[in-house]
Amino acid sequence: MSLSSLPDKCLKIVFQHLDMRSQCNWAFTCSRFLRIYRMVNKNKFRNFIWYERSCEWSKQEVEYLFRLNGRHMRRLAISDAQDLSSHSDLMLWSKSIFVAPVCVYLKNLRSLTLCLSDNMGEIMLKVCRYMLKLEDLTVNTNCEMNYTFLVLLPRLKSLDLENFDVGGADTLFELLATMRRDVLQSLRIGSQLQLKEAKDIIKLKSLEMLSVCNPSRVFLELILQLDTVRVLSISQGISLDDVDFMRFMAESKALSALYVSDCLNLTWEFPVFAVDLLKHEKHTLLCRHRRLPFYVECCRTGITMKALKKSDIFSSQELLEVKLVDKDRKVKMLI
């Protein structure tokens, strides 16, 4: 008896016991196995994280995987982290060598996360050419990159770039401010930006979530011109103190959530000020643009549990919620 003589029900059971790579190889042997493959994997790849080790795949097998499933994918995450953590003693190649050729199969993708180490220039060009429905893009790479071509993505609403070369010839924000000023809603940059980029960012009129690294006081003053920002995240705010955060909160009427990490000059005085400000706004009906309670999350700041317990913010939980977390994002205190 051969496999082809088995009924579909039995073949489905066989397929379900195979790993993903073997299933793809079988699917391309005949039209019947392809049909069984699609029955077994219906809707399985809409949200796909590629955790398979790269050393187990050939380029042709990777192409099989995305040719079979790429048009069904809506969210995709590809990372080298699994390879590096599991097989640090082996010489492995980055998954980036597989990505560029398969972008043509990902035309329906809405969200893409790439944590890769090589070949990112070619990959970004392919992304901008084929993934015109992309709305959410996250890129974490150590490669020197020029992200200017991302302006070609007409639906891009959320952008997260861990490393941005401010000293290069990248004109991404300048072009976004000119061509896509009403599209981008969320922006995170994991490296410090210069004032030139800030002047372009404030022209993004639909921006509601902004995350920046080590901003200066002048940078914050410029960001105040963005009256649409509801969520602000600041990491490594070394040069900022209570007064800077107080002023920003007082003048940014739509701000409803603040995330701060590595800012030792932020102390208990800020949440106390925030409570007083929110009480005043509520009494004068000025807080109609904020979402209450105002949310503050702090990691490695000067705000301590002991200082908060001495304040009167415990009685104002309908106005302010404060969460203290450690470096592993574990909650130390929630008010």
Automatic annotation (TrEMBL):
Q: Where is the F-box domain?
A: 1-48
Identify the InterPro entries for this entry: F-box-like_dom_sf (IPR036047), F-box_dom (IPR001810), LRR_dom_sf (IPR032675)
> One Pfam annotation, family name?
F-box
Query: What's the domain of life for this entry?
Result: Eukaryota
UniProt-recorded name of the protein: Uncharacterized protein LOC108049761 isoform X1
Q: Per the UniProt entry, what species is this protein from, by scientific name?
A: Drosophila rhopaloa
